[in-house]
Specification:
With 546 residues, this protein is an alpha+beta fold. The protein is 23% helix and 28% strand.
Length: 546
């Protein structure tokens, strides 16, 4: 009997998934445990294995397409088995609209004459939708189209650069054919699952296909005149053009951004992309020539002839007022949304203490003499926090509308800066880890966070968060609570300064830490007691071994 396979939920926040690659095709034999496909979330691309045996009879989501959790992914059954009833039932469940009640009578939602079922797609035509590249992504922005209508597309070609809440990513085609339609122009934002493009055989009539795929059907099909206008506009668009000395420079938005950050003059960079287009690797591998450096260093010296005695001249304001508007990335939008929710829903209060770090510095130096051992001060802070949370579980809590959830397990989240934002990988059961284990784990997680190779489960389940800006020379700061946690510790730099000990002024090393608390779950006295315990552990690190 045929079995419907649905889009799996690969994380507790996942609502949709992208099929990155099918490892089986229709007609292939499937055994239990075989890898069917690679499914992409915002955290990682994960292999999805089959829990059934039989023949792959149907693929419901093509490569590169996005679908919600529980959508029809595939059908596995006996070779030659009739799956029409299953497909019809699936289509009816997906397309049936809610009835409209008018004057206590139920009326069916009307349909338009030009609607076509998905099965009416012309042969070889594939609708490419805006992929969901993050569990928090609701829409995406097309930063640049690398193909235009009428261009030949091969499997693996880069179609466009799409900006998500995590980064600007190159989106490659998993289909071959001709680019027949572009649904989202450069710089425009569109929701996930909206029509991004249509690929198929050259000359195929695609009238009405894009409109039938639009969510809710609220957008009418464009007229022939407007369609012609859009086509002409799309054909004249290029990725990014910079006019310099009469020539045009083609560069991707991501490469342009990196060049600006590194102060590289893109006129001097030779592009390796299509039509000489400058891409990310060109910028990263660029080495300035000596001629370019010399040219920029040459300045015209003023003539020294007939010099007049200098007199103070009144300043006359002159110049041009310059501003630059940078479009918000999806990551920045999500950070703004989540942190605004936290600061406006959780009543924050802050407690700051100064910790003597002389003994911690001595202990760290001793520990690091052990071969293949490297412990940082941040590792010691994380360990001290984990042990203090065991003694003060109210700080290790979560607010709920009808109760407070006390966590008796300790999972410390560590804030890690990545491009355009930050992520918080989690150390599970931190109180049971040694300092060297914490150090190795943080180094591994931080490295994979920056390369976007963390698994979704590695960023879930934190009960407390540590944020450290001490390495940037920040003395003290306050953080916004990473909900649903009830507290976050902000760690400053260790500073050498005069301190009073036993009535004498001596040179000491101190560090300021600030605890941000949610007043709904943590009272001032509770937070203060936690910080006292934390100070005891840091000022006497040997006690963490007890």
């Amino acid at each position: 009997m045929a079995k419907i396979i649905t889009m799996p939920r690969l994380s507790d926040t996942m609502t949709e998934g992208v099929v990155a690659k099918w490892l089986k095709k229709v007609g292939d034999k499937i055994s239990e445990g075989d890898i069917l496909a690679e499914i992409e979330t915002d955290k990682a691309t994960m292999e999805f294995e089959s829990f059934n045996s039989g023949t792959l009879l149907h693929i419901g989501i093509n490569e590169g397409e996005t679908a919600p959790v529980d959508a029809l992914l595939a059908i596995i059954g006996t070779a030659g088995e009739d799956i029409a009833p299953l497909l019809n039932a699936s289509k009816q469940a997906a397309t049936t609209a809610a009835p409209v009640v008018v004057d206590d009578k139920v009326e069916a939602t009307p349909t338009t004459d030009n609607q076509q079922p998905s099965t009416a797609l012309p042969k070889g035509v594939v609708v490419v939708t805006m992929p969901r590249l993050s569990d928090t992504m609701t829409d995406g922005t097309v930063a640049s189209w690398l193909k235009k209508i009428g261009d030949k597309v091969s499997e693996g070609d880069i179609l466009a650069e799409i900006e998500t809440d995590k980064a600007t990513m190159e989106f490659e085609s998993f289909n071959a054919g001709t680019l027949l339609f572009i649904g989202v122009n450069e710089g425009e934002t569109a929701p996930v699952d909206s029509v991004l493009a249509i690929i198929g055989p050259a000359g195929t009539d695609i009238t009405g296909i894009a409109e039938n795929y639009k969510k809710g059907g609220s957008t009418a099909a464009p007229s022939k005149e407007s369609a012609k206008t859009e086509t002409l506009a799309e054909k004249t668009e290029e990725p990014i053009q910079v006019v310099s000395d009469g020539r045009r420079i083609f560069i991707s938005p991501l490469a342009k951004k990196i060049a600006e950050e590194k102060g590289i003059n893109i006129v001097q960079v030779k592009g390796s992309g299509e039509n000489g287009r400058i891409i990310k690797s060109d910028i990263e591998n660029y080495t300035p020539s000596s001629q370019a450096v010399t040219a920029t260093a040459v300045e015209v010296q003023p003539s020294t002839d007939n010099r007049q005695p200098t007199t103070a001249q009144p300043f006359v304001p002159a110049g041009e007022t310059l501003t630059e508007e940078i479009k918000n990335s999806q990551m920045r939008k999500i950070i703004a949304k989540r942190l605004s929710e936290s600061i406006f829903t959780a009543p924050h209060f802050y407690l700051t203490i100064e910790v003597a770090m002389d003994e911690a510095m001595k202990s760290r130096a001793t520990i690091n003499t052990i071969p293949d051992t490297k412990v940082s001060f941040n590792d010691m802070v994380i360990k001290a926090c984990a042990m203090a949370l065991k003694k003060h579980p109210k700080v290790n809590s979560q607010w709920r509308e009808d109760s407070i959830l006390i966590n008796h397990h300790v999972n410390v989240g560590v804030a890690v800066a990545v491009e355009d934002g930050l992520v918080v990988p989690v150390l599970r059961f931190t109180d049971q880890m040694s300092l060297s284990q914490i150090g190795n784990s943080v180094k591994d997680l931080a490295g994979r966070a920056k390369s976007k190779k963390l698994q979704p489960a590695e960023m879930e389940g934190s009960t407390f968060t540590v944020s450290n800006l001490g390495m940037f020379g920040i003395s003290e700061f306050t953080s916004i609570i990473n909900q649903p946690n009830s507290a976050i510790l902000s760690v400053g730099a260790i500073e050498e300064k005069p301190v009073v000990r036993n009535g004498q002024i001596v040179v000491g090393n101190t560090m300021k830490v600030t605890l941000a608390c949610d007043h709904r779950t943590v009272d001032g006295a509770t937070g203060a007691q936690f910080l006292q315990t934390l100070r005891q552990y840091l000022e006497n690190p040997v006690t963490m071994l007890a």
